[in-house]
Amino acid sequence: MAKHMRWLLLVGLAVCMQASAASAGTLDTLRERGTLRIGYVVDEAPFSSSKPDAKPTGYAVDLCGKVADEIEHVVPQVKREYVEMTLANGFDSVKSGQVDLLCGAVTVNLERREIVDFSQPIFLTGASALLRRDSPDYLQSLFLDKPAPRAVSQNLASTSVIGVRANTTTDAILRKAQSTEISKTRIADFNTHEEGLKALEEHKIDAYFADQVLLMSLAKRAHNPSSLEVGDRLFTHEPYAIALRRDDGDFRLVVDRALTDFYLSDGFLPLLQTYFGSDAPMLHTQIMMEHVP
């Protein structure tokens, strides 16, 4: 009997310890661990990217750095650790506590909010297509704000191949649209945007779909940028934010406060100019209209 009671006591103690750990806030975890783990999604320039033996760079990475500065005021001397992530494992890594922030071209939607929480918006864009100048006419009519150079061929439209990066919101939307229409259009998944660009340039696909701002950066890295066009029509709304743990209002408040303070500073517009050039003033206005005052 005494042995049985000791066993029950140990089980109860273990359950209590697990519950306590689960209820501990991110800031408490950072105090105990002493390290802020910043996850970043690779292959998402100009938001997050990296080179071998170098720190990650990008607009979202820089904003996460501003957040880390604010966290240091709350948790003095906390160290920073950058962890390379993919979209396929990034959200589960936030949920499990492997990383505290997930930075990149991370779209907010309701499905993802079942797993993680998000900061206030850091960018606004939408999905479009990267086309070759000889891509099928129907694609040019859909995505370019100009008449197609030739009559649209419906037969060609039904046999096209379009590319998209796997495990993205754009991938999910394309496949849902495909399932509701009778079409021979095929969707080719790629692990990276660079692979999609290569396939487009080699005529293996007729268009590559992603968020417009990512396509603009991707086109600049093409072998012959003048042979490509980025669509100027958007078919989705993609608000980007920093992903963080769910049900932790104190931590989210620190993150949002850091972002608002930086948005209102003299350094925000120059940062936008660094990554987005002449589009910076327009982007500045958009973000300021959406930010938490």
TrEMBL record:
It comes from the Bacteria. Keywords: Signal, Transport. Residues 35-279 form the Solute-binding protein family 3/N-terminal domain. SUPFAM superfamilies: Periplasmic binding protein-like II (SSF53850). Gene3D superfamilies: Periplasmic binding protein-like II (3.40.190.10). The keyword Transcription does not apply. Residues 37-278 form the Ionotropic glutamate receptor C-terminal domain. Residues 1-24 form the signal peptide. SMART domains: PBPb, PBPe. InterPro entries: Bact_solute-bind_prot3, Iontro_rcpt_C, Solute-binding_3/MltF_N. The keyword Lyase does not apply. Pfam families: SBP_bac_3 (PF00497). Belongs to the bacterial solute-binding protein 3 family. PANTHER family: ABC TRANSPORTER GLUTAMINE-BINDING PROTEIN GLNH (PTHR30085:SF6), AMINO ACID ABC TRANSPORTER PERMEASE (PTHR30085). This is Amino acid ABC transporter substrate-binding protein. It comes from Rhizobium calliandrae.
